[in-house]
Design brief:
The structure holds 2 protein chains of 2 kinds.
Chain A lengths: L2 H29 L7 H15 L9 H24 L16 H12 L9 H4 L2 H31 L9 H27 L8 E5 L6 E5 L3 H10 L20 H25 L3 H28 L2 H4 L24 H14 L14 H12 L10 H21 L4 E2 L2 E2 L2 H26 L2 H4 L7 H15 L14 H31 L15 H17 L2 H16 L2
Antiparallel strand pairs in A: 1-2, 3-4
Helix pairs in contact in A: 1-9, 1-12, 2-7, 3-4, 3-6, 3-18, 4-18, 6-7, 6-8, 6-18, 7-8, 7-9, 8-9, 9-10, 9-12, 10-12, 10-13, 10-19, 12-13, 13-17, 13-20, 14-15, 14-19, 15-17, 15-18, 17-18, 17-20
Chain B lengths: L2 H33 L1 H4 L3 E3 L5 E4 L39 H18 L21 E2 L1 H5 L2 H8 L3 H10 L1 E2 L10 E3 H11 L1
Antiparallel strand pairs in B: 1-2, 3-5, 4-5
Helix pairs in contact in B: 5-6
Classes of the chains: A mainly alpha, B mainly alpha.
């Protein structure tokens, strides 16, 4: 580890924390329907959308109607994307695309992009035409992120409202997310990316002749920057290219990389501020932000430490063991020179702690403990800070559990923000927390006990098991990154993957909305002597422990036979 | 079944598809092509005759003694296959990783004679994209004597050229110092 490496990591964290409040204030104004910076331009467009779809802003929904709208809208999105991928060879601007995707691959990809997972069983540049990349994938990058934000807003209304069944209007929340937040930010970010060296053209490829061999090379191109911008802002992560954000056209320089890291985390972190502001107590939001940072930072440190220590097998060959300014040391397999070990480790922990899943280095080639940091961050349920919307509503469920357990221990009625936490809330919370590990572990077990699953493994020893565990942890948390050596483009992985991505997205959204509906119906209890303060350092530590114990313990046995054994083997070399 | 929700879903889906899938990329393409015409078309590097001999940010394979070599690449088919970005995805304990690294080390030693400086990690390992345009300054410096011999230049001339092509960290802080192999090799050709 180097001092400058830590400075790079620190700089990112300082910048993102500084952005939380200004971005949060803007978002809070947008979602309260207040006037903001962009409303003179965007309000007419917003009104036009509502007229077109016959939506009235005042017409609010209860949790069932909200949930139905989410489901129908997203299923329509899956069908729309599936059809595009199946007929892409017939569509315009798809020059050079020889064939449609196979049914199982198209289904997996459609579910993947609609659920904000962006798991890719295919190689972007050689499989998809420009039409599929833009009208197909870019659109779902926007809509899946906006869906997450909408569900979070409905959930927050469960706390802010009393004795009502109404949680807001899904179409209004969706439209505002896209028009005021995701689209303007994407426009700015994509132009910055082009300025720094990303491509943005309607040509499907660029030709050049190499200097030494005079060989003609053709590199796929297209409207890359516009897709990369929303891919990161929307915590989507599905790359235009197979190499994802390691590809120089997606992420040309360390500066563009800093922008992408900020882009994929600033909204999830800022949502804690909106939460605080909407419930009328910003300290509650800051407390949750601190919990997220306490959960994230040690894993960033673990990944960086493990990657800079490097791979002893290669270090025995010839290379220096300490990093000098001129010579990178540590584990450079699957990493780019311009980013180096520190930035790559930081990016990896950010992408797995949000639902992004974009990569600038190959997680499969990480040291065992570096890869485990990525695995654990997903397996905690991606709550630090998590995907857009989904991260914070996941974390708030952990808060309810923490409040409930603390209440039981001291014999007080558990309450949070003036809402009594009762058996129904706890049933929903238990459901929300248990579904993910149950699905991930049972599908991993199924995969490693069938030929269909085993045939995807490409690395020997315990790492082969880690590849499968990583695949289902990633899809089961709507992350999308991979130990990418796994050959997952087979009917087994495509269908099992589509199932777990769909279930872990919508099977969680529905109980979340039901929980919100139940909370909104309740009266507000005044703060009394028996109220547990939820902004104290004690509660912050308590919540961190609850997330770690409830989240990580489920996976400890699986981690023991994957990365942990691999680490012990490597230490013995 | 509530048909109103279905109808609203379709209306929103199609209008957002037009706005974010068509208008947005077209708008960005239009602006980018006007404001950043060079970058948005791949940052091409051209000869005096106007022929495109590479893209600044896309690495190329160099194997002869007279050029600086890029990092190993694991792209499908052949190294630095621009049409299929990707890396090895070998795990740390995968025997193929050690075999490949030993091979790269031997190639470097064969090419360079005895290497007095130790070999930096980036020359033993392949990148994530397989198209890494950069090598570390140390990786360039260990190749100086070979290139100088092959071109009949003094080592000092070549070493100075390397030093003048070291790109610092962005803002002296972000990322790592690096040398763009294509630009360094073009400068070599310009030298002799």
């Amino acid at each position: 580890m180097t001092f400058i490496g830590w400075q790079q990591i620190l700089l990112y964290f300082i910048l993102v924390i500084l952005l939380v409040k200004p971005v949060g204030i803007y978002l809070a104004r947008v979602f309260s329907g207040e006037k903001n910076l962009l409303s003179p331009v965007i309000r007419p467009v917003e009104a036009f959308f509502y007229r077109l779809a016959d939506v009235s802003v005042e017409n609010e929904m209860d949790w069932k109607e909200y949930g139905k709208s989410v489901l129908v809208f997203n299923i329509a999105g899956i069908i729309f994307l599936y059809v595009i991928l199946r007929i892409q060879h017939l569509l315009p601007v798809s020059l050079g695309v020889p064939e449609p995707l196979s049914p199982d691959l198209a289904f997996n990809t459609a579910v993947s992009f609609v659920t904000n997972t962006n798991w890719q069983s295919y190689s972007g540049e050689s499989t998809l035409g420009i039409f599929s990349q833009t009208i197909g994938l870019t659109v779902q990058n926007f809509l899946s992120a906006a869906t997450g934000m909408a569900v979070l807003l409905a959930f927050i209304r469960g706390f802010t409202r009393r004795q009502t069944s109404l949680l807001g209007n899904f179409w209004v929340d969706l439209t505002r997310s896209v028009l005021y937040v995701l689209l303007p930010l994407s426009i700015v970010l994509s132009l910055c990316l082009v300025g720094l060296g990303s491509v943005q053209t309607l040509q499907p490829s660029i030709l050049f002749t190499t200097l030494e061999n005079h060989a003609t090379q053709s590199i796929p191109a297209g409207p890359v920057a516009s897709q990369i911008a929303i891919k990161h802002l929307g915590t989507n992560g599905g790359g235009y290219y197979n190499a994802n954000a390691a590809h120089p056209f997606e992420n040309p320089s360390p500066m563009s990389n800093l922008l992408l890291m900020l882009a994929e985390t600033v909204i999830p972190f800022s949502l804690t501020y909106i939460f605080g502001r909407l419930i009328g107590d910003t300290r509650q939001g800051w407390a949750i932000l601190i919990v997220m940072l306490i959960l994230l930072l040690p894993f960033t440190g673990l990944a960086y430490a493990s990657e800079s220590a490097g791979n002893p097998i290669l270090q025995h060959l010839a290379a220096p063991t300490s990093s000098t300014p001129a010579a990178p040391a540590g584990n450079m397999e699957g990493k780019e020179v311009r980013f180096g070990v520190a930035t790559s480790s930081l990016f990896t922990t950010l992408t797995t702690s949000t639902s992004s899943g974009a990569v600038i280095s190959l997680h499969d080639s990480y040291t065992p403990l570096g890869g485990m940091a990525a695995l654990v961050l997903m397996e905690l349920g991606e709550v630090a800070p998590g995907g857009i919307g989904s991260g914070l509503y996941g974390m708030l469920v952990f808060v309810l559990v923490a409040v409930f357990i603390a209440g039981l221990m001291v014999g007080r009625t558990p309450e949070y923000l003036g809402k009594k936490i009762e058996p129904f809330e706890m049933k929903m919370a238990a459901l929300l927390i248990l579904i993910m590990p149950l699905l991930v572990l049972s599908l991993t077990a199924l995969a490693v006990s069938t030929q269909a699953g085993l045939s995807g493994i490409t690395n020997p020893g315990p790492h082969g098991f880690s590849q499968v565990l990583y695949a289902f942890s990633s899809m089961g948390n709507n992350n999308g990154s991979a130990f990418a050596g796994i050959s997952a483009n087979s009917p087994f992985y495509n269908l099992a993957g589509a199932f777990i991505m769909f279930a872990s997205r919508f099977w969680l959204i529905l109980p979340t909305l039901a929980l919100a509906g139940s909370l909104a119906e309740k009266k507000k209890v005044p703060v009394g002597a028996g109220t547990l303060p939820t902004t104290s350092p004690l509660f912050i530590i308590w919540l961190v422990l609850i997330v770690l114990v409830v989240g990580a313990l489920n996976f400890l046995p699986a981690l023991a036979i994957g990365p942990i054994i691999e680490h012990i083997m490597m230490a013995g070399m | 079944m509530n048909w109103r929700i279905v109808k609203q879903s379709l209306v929103f889906l199609l209008s957002f598809a037009i706005l974010t899938g068509l208008v947005y990329p077209a708008l960005i393409t239009g602006i980018a092509q006007v404001v950043f015409p060079w970058q948005s078309n791949g940052s091409p590097v051209k000869t005096a005759g106007g022929e495109t001999i590479g893209l600044q940010n896309i690495g190329q394979s160099f194997t002869g003694p007279a050029y600086f070599w890029s990092r190993p690449s694991s792209t499908e088919g052949s190294p630095y296959n621009a049409g299929a970005s990707g890396g090895s995805n070998w795990s740390a304990l995968n025997p193929k990783l050690k075999e490949a690294a030993s091979q790269h080390l031997m190639d470097l030693e064969d090419g360079n004679g005895s290497i007095s400086l130790s070999v930096p990690m980036d020359m033993l390992t392949s990148s994530a994209s397989g198209l890494d345009p950069h090598i570390s300054p140390a990786a360039a410096l260990i190749q100086v004597s070979r290139v100088a011999r092959a071109r009949g230049l003094t080592e000092e001339q070549v070493r100075n050229l390397v030093y003048s092509h070291i790109e610092n960290r962005d803002f002296y802080l972000l990322g790592e110092p690096r040398v763009n192999v294509l630009q360094l090799n073009l400068a070599l050709d310009a030298l002799k």
